[in-house]
Structures are given as C-alpha cells and as structure tokens.
Amino acid sequence: MRAPSSAVPVPDEASSSGSSGASRRVGRVVVLGAGMAGLLAAAAAARHVGEVVIVERDRLPDGLEPRKGLPQARHAHLMMSGGARAVESLLPGTVEGWVSAGARRVPLGTGLVAFGPQGWYPRWPSTQFLMACTRDLLDLVVREKVLALPGVVLRQETDALALLGDAQRVTGVKVRTAGSHSAEALEADLVIDASGRGSQAARRLNELGLHPAHEETVDTGMVYVTRIFRAPPGSERFPVVSVQADPHGAMPGQGATMLPVEGGRWLLTACGTRGGEPSREPGEFEPFIRSLRHPLIADLIAGLEPLTDVHLTRSTVNRRRYFERLPAWPDGFAVMGDAVATFNPVYGQGMSVAAHSATAIRGLLAEHGVAAPGLARRIQRAVGRAASSPWDLATGEDINYPGAIGERPPAAARLLRGYVQRLMRTAVVNPVVLRSLYDVMTLSAPMTALVSPPVVLGVLRGPGRDVRNEPSITPAELAVCGLGPRGRS
Ligand SMILES: Cc1cc2nc3c(=O)[nH]c(=O)nc-3n(C[C@H](O)[C@H](O)[C@H](O)COP(=O)(O)OP(=O)(O)OC[C@H]3O[C@@H](n4cnc5c(N)ncnc54)[C@H](O)[C@@H]3O)c2cc1C
C-alpha cells in the first residue's frame, strides 16, 4: 500500500513569513542513521516535506562524547572546504558554530605543512580550507542544528529491520525501539538509507526481488592508529602537519597527520599499508612516526604528554556499490553516504561526498516534490555522481601501493595517472597547479579542473629542478616545540 502523504502539513517559509494562500509542505521522509550523511539528508528534506523521521540505533550523546555507532570518530576527520560549504548551504551558520565550539578554519596552503610524495608543498594561499577539530565536535554542531529544524523527529535507540513495499515502490520501514517487544511500521513517501558501511540496503533490495548491485573494492590493507597529545603552550595557531605516504614507492606506504583540535590538543593519526602496518602498542607509536619518510612530526611531538591510548582501525577499504546502474529501481527508496561508497580515509572525502549528495537531494526534492514517480532513481544517480570523482581519485592512487587488492584501472585511466603524477610533481613548484589540486582534493571542483588549459600548460612545462627539499615550517613554529632549525634547542 502506498504511504499516505498526509503527515503533519507545516507551513513553508513563504507562509510562515505571512504570505496568504502559501503552499503547505506535505509528506514524510524517513532517514535511516544519524551519522553525518543521515543528518545532512534530513536537513535537505526538512525544507521540502512536512515531517522527517531520523531512525538511529544508538542513543545519541547530549554533548561532546563518543558513541558506539561511530567508532571512526577517534581518528583524524578532515572536513574539507568543498564539504564545509555544502554543509553551510544546508545548515547556515554551521562553520561559525564549529569555530565557536573550538574548531579552527585552517587555510590551505598557508596553514598546512605537508611533505607529499614529490616534496614539501609551498605554503601559498588559496581559497580552500579545512576544519581542524574532532569528529565528535563536527557531529555535535550539525546534530543540534538538524534536530532544531521544524518537522524533524529523532527516533533514537531504534533499529531499522526491513523495508516495506515491493520492487516497484518502497512504502516505509519496519523498526523496533529498544525495550519494545514488537516491531512497528513507519510509512514514508521516501526512505533514505544512510546507515553507513554496514548498511543492509543491498540485501533488502534483493529481498524485494531486485538484482544485486555491482560492487567494487580497492583495498590497500591500510591500518590507522591515533593518539592524542597535549599541545605545547603557544601553539594556538599551529599548522596542520602531514607526512604523506607514497603510493608509487617500492615499500608499503606509511604516513601521519597531526591535527590541532579543540581543547589545546594535537590529534595524531598514522597509517601504514599492507606489510607496513602500525601497531596499537603505545611503545611502538613514536618509533613508527620517527620512521616515516621525514621525522618532522616525531620531532614536534617528542616530550609531549600523551592523553589517550593508541586506537586502531582497519576500516580503510574503498568500496563502492553501483546502485545507480541497476536496471530497475523502486520509487520511495534511496541510499547515500558510506552505505554507497567508502573511501580510504587518508583522502578525507567521506563527509564531503555525503554533503554534496545531500545538496543534490535538496535540489531534486525542490524540483520534483517528494511523491514524484522516478524521484528516487534520480536521487540514486545524483548520489552516484557525487561519489564518482572522489572514487577515481582515491582508487587511482591506492591501487599503486604494493600489495593493494582490487581491479587495475583501464588503460585510459593509467594514462591519466601518468598525467596526474606529473601534475603532483609540478604542484610543488607551480601555484596555479597547486591551487587546482587543492580545489579537487577539497571536493570544491571536479577532477576535470585538473585538465583546464592553464593547468595543462603548467603540467606540460613540468616541475623543472626547482623542488623544495626543506620542510616548509617556520623557525617560530619550530620554536613553539622547543626546536631550532637543526633540531631540539
Ligand atoms: C578511520 C576513518 C577516518 C575517516 N576520516 C575522514 C576524514 O578525514 N574526512 C571525511 O570526510 N571522512 C572521513 N571518514 C569517513 C566518514 O567517517 C564517513 O564518510 C561519514 O561518517 C559519513 O558516514 P555515514 O553517515 O554514511 O555513516 P556512519 O557515520 O557510519 O553513520 C551511520 C549511522 O547509522 C546508524 N545505523 C546503522 N545501522 C542502523 C540500523 N539498522 N538502524 C538504525 N540506525 C542504524 C549507526 O549507528 C550510525 O549512527 C573516515 C572514516 C574512517 C573509518
């Protein structure tokens, strides 16, 4: 049975500002999962329907606390400017909210000291930035804003069990709330599955009689470890520091990023691909950091007080489910976020892809309305498009690590890779090329920005011999850590 579009009608912005005869928003969207993707999908839908119900298995914390359903929050989470702008457009005031809660808006590249595979990146200014704070802080601000939107209802400690409907139309979802003995049917015009990498969407669609979606994986076997340190006094404006893994070397890739976070702390995440994995043994953390391609980060943290144990995760595989390619798709159902695509986290893309998907959902709801036949399929295609460039970027690099498991890219993609490698070498000496790289890596521009005429020209000229070999950190920044230009003073 088709879900009724009768959920509480609420006045739209026009009518709440007093215009007579204004349309009323109707319909109900149910979002599965209150992670970043689910919250942003809810924000997108809340403007266009009467009610948005968010179904979340966890009990969500009131403040800045970790939770069971978000184990990855212990590790460095970079919200890139492309994603931050998309979040801001869905929830105005969010960037300011993050900053007032203790985050820093770090400009690229002036606020970044990075040793890439091709050398140290110069600290030239650009229009891009990243947010430096913990994942818990990013979520808290977004959650508070979303839950304050009119028509948004949170059903926490509630498990999504099954889809209602058939292969033509999903009409809702069966849920059970903790402590209740029976399941309950939540009817909806549109169900959005944002339940993360463990999503059961593929299995549930199969149960409705749909074909399985094609799935691709590229797995470097990367292991992530994270430890938080007390930041040294005077480090309030300290840059983000990164020694990146080299996918093109003969050895396993190893790297680390030091992210200054709220509360005067430095969050240090290190990683190593198959054969070069870090361990969760606290005594092995500092030696691992020192053994990286450059010892700068080890020098910076030497003597700093660790505030946590070492946390480890292996959830780094690139996995994409091509739901948008299925020959048939039911109305009333869409999948987004990590449930569609997960990326190796070193590229810092997942939250930004979710934000871009949510803005696409908002646009499609505005254009077609929640009950339009074919809306769900349009959403699924838009979600696939949002994942596409980041997927190519992440897997195109990752497949080169020794021991990486996955399908080799076709010949055309390998040709493009040769170009991208030359581009990365050129970016270290050419500001136009570096800025275009930042535009793409922050998900502010599609991959095609890397083949715009000025960039191609720069890449054709190449890097010359002018590659910088000294860390791009200033003497004043070194002094904050008690270091002189030649080490500890
Ligand atoms: C180690 C690591 C580091 C990362 N670093 C970055 C980074 O630097 N930058 C970046 O942009 N991204 C990063 N990511 C990716 C980022 O965490 C995700 O892309 C982002 O959280 C969006 O995920 P999501 O909302 O789709 O899923 P999740 O965050 O997993 O949320 C899914 C939610 O659904 C709930 N749920 C699951 N099943 C059910 C059910 N049956 N019923 C009800 N609720 C359910 C869960 O409790 C959870 O709250 C990183 C990921 C990892 C693993």
Structural features, described:
The structure is a single chain. By secondary structure, the protein is α+β, with helices and mostly antiparallel strands. Among the domains are: about 10-75 and about 135-220 and about 315-395, FAD/NAD(P)-binding domain (3-Layer(bba) Sandwich); about 220-315, Alpha-Beta Plaits (2-Layer Sandwich), CATH 3.30.70.2450. Helices cover about 30% and strands about 20% of the residues. It is built from 14 helices and 26 strands. It has helices at about 15, 35-45, 80-90, 95-100, 135-145, 200-205, 280-290, 295-300, 350-370, 375-400, 410-425, 430-440, 455-460, 475-480; strands at about 10, 25, 30, 50-55, 80, 105, 110-115, 120, 130, 150-155, 160-165, 170-175, 185, 190-195, 215-220, 225-230, 240-245, 255-260, 265-270, 310-315, 320, 335, 340, 405, 485, 485-489. Strands 8-7-17-18-19-16-20 form a 7-stranded mixed β-sheet. Strands 10-4-3-14-22 form a 5-stranded parallel β-sheet. Strands 23-21-15-24 form a 4-stranded antiparallel β-sheet, with helices on one face. Helix 2 (about 35-45) packs parallel to helix 9 (about 350-370) and helix 11 (about 410-425) crosses helix 13 (about 455-460). The radius of gyration is 23 Å and the shape is globular. The protein starts with 9 loop residues before the first strand and ends with a strand. The model is unreliable at about 1-25 (pLDDT under 50). It binds flavin-adenine dinucleotide. Flavin-adenine dinucleotide binds near residues 69, 160 and 315. Flavin-adenine dinucleotide binds near residues 159, 196 and 345.
